[in-house]
């Protein structure tokens, strides 16, 4: 049985270094609030506000370390509240996506693009993927057994020796299935 731990990913933002500088000031370094499931990744102590055409969210958690692009990952429900219509995409694939205003304590950034609903995916360490015969970018089906059982379709396998085994879904998906971080799913094919 191919059991996968599940992580529910709430709205969050990744920032590139120049945007951290504009939002927090010259030479600012993000602080670690807590480590995440993926090695070297962390929830930062810092938050920002994001402002869309219809609404705003304050205290959106920054995930570190800094990235090569700035990207806001939200649920479909969040998108309605902000007044944006982002596509479901893999992280980093932001071409043609809506933009958003980011407000920090020292300044603002207007993203031209960068808002996505993150595609559900599983991080596989290379050894786990090899053991189970999983290829990078393979589309999988994952069953969860809760009081609202569901099979998640088109779960993207992401394979790297830098990853730890973990499936990531957003809050809408987690709530619909009655899941919480730490629950498990089973790869069915």
Automatic annotation (TrEMBL):
GO biological-process terms attached to the record: 1,2-propanediol catabolic process
A molecular function (GO) term: metal ion binding
Catalytic activity entry: propanoyl-CoA + phosphate = propanoyl phosphate + CoA
Domain of life: Bacteria
Pfam families listed in its UniProt record: PTAC
InterPro entries cross-referenced by the UniProt entry: PTAC (IPR008300)
Keyword Zinc: yes
Pathway(s) it belongs to: Polyol metabolism; 1,2-propanediol degradation
Enzyme Commission number(s) of this protein: 2.3.1.222
Record bears the keyword Transferase: yes
Cofactors demanded by this protein: Zn(2+)
Keywords: Acyltransferase, Metal-binding, Transferase, Zinc
Function: Involved in 1,2-propanediol (1,2-PD) degradation by catalyzing the conversion of propanoyl-CoA to propanoyl-phosphate.
Family in the record: Belongs to the PduL family.
Protein name as catalogued: Phosphate propanoyltransferase
Organism: Paenibacillus chitinolyticus
